[in-house]
Amino acid sequence: MSLHRTLATLTTATAALITLSLSGGAVAYADDNPPGSTTTSPPPDVDSNSPGLKLADGATLAPAKVLDIKSVVEDLSGDERREDTNQDVTFALQAEVLFPKDSSKLNPGAKSRIQAIADEIKAQNATNVRVFGFTDDLGTYAHGLTLSKKRAEAVHDVLAAALGSQEQELTFEVRGYSEDYPIADNNSEEGRKKNRRVEVSFPRGERGTGDQS
Question: In whole angstroms, how far apart are CA 91 and each of 81, 96, 133?
Fold first, then answer.
C-alpha cells in the first residue's frame, strides 16, 4: 500500500472516531432540538499550499468540515440531563421533579435545581437563553401546548429572579411545544416520563471553550 493511500486511510479512520458521541444518550424520534436551539459555525479556512501540511506529492486537501462533538450526561435517576455541544449547553429537567401532575406550579424543591442552571448561565456569560417546555402525547395537543408553555414560563420566572441584575442583559425565548420533539418512545411510561420536560439552553461562553465537563 502506498504512503499516500496509507495517509488517506488513517485520516478517514481518525475523522470517524472524532465524530463519535462522547457519551450515550436517548435517540430523538424527531429533530434532536427544536427550531432555534442550535447554531452552526462555518468551516475554518485552510491554506492548501502551506508547506507545514506535508502532503504526499500530488495529494490535495478535501473540503474543510466542522465536526460537532456532543457530550450527554444524565443523573442516575434520569431526572436531569446536561448536553454540551461545540455551540450550546442544554439542561433538561423532567416535569415530575419540577411540577405536580398536570400542573404548572413549581414543587418546593424545584427552585434549587433551577438556581443551579442560573449559576451556569452566569458562568458561561450567556446573553441569550431559551426555555422550552414539552409534554408526552397523552391528552389533546392543545392542552399539552398550554401546559408546556406555562411550565416554561414558570421556569423562566425563577431563572430571571435568580439572575437578578444580569436579566437586563439577557434575551429570553420562552416556548411550549406540547408533544413535539420527543426524545424517547411515547409507547412506554418510561419514555413518556423523559418527554415530559423543560429544557433550558444557551450558547457556550469563554468558560466552555475546550471544556465540556
Answer: 6, 15, 12
Q: Sign of dihedral through CA atoms 187, 130, 108, 177?
A: negative
Q: Give the CA distances from residue 30 to residues 47, 54, 109, 179, 184, in Å, rounded to whole numbers and listed in that order.
A: 38, 43, 31, 11, 9
Contact 36, 130 (CB under 8 A): yes
Distance CA 36, CA 90 (A): 13
pTM above 0.90, yes or no: no
* pLDDT 10s digits, 140-165: 999 999 999 999 999 999 999 999 86
Using CA atoms in the order 99, 76, 81, 207, what is the torsion angle rounded to 10 degrees?
Answer: 120
Strands in 197-203's sheet, in edge-to-edge order, are 71-74, 80-84, 88-94, 197-203, 128-134, 171-176
pLDDT digits (tens, 9 = 90+) for 20-36: 333 333 333 444 557 65
Type of residue at 11: T
Q: How far apart are CA 184 and CA 26, in angstroms?
A: 6
Contact 87, 170 (CB under 8 A): no
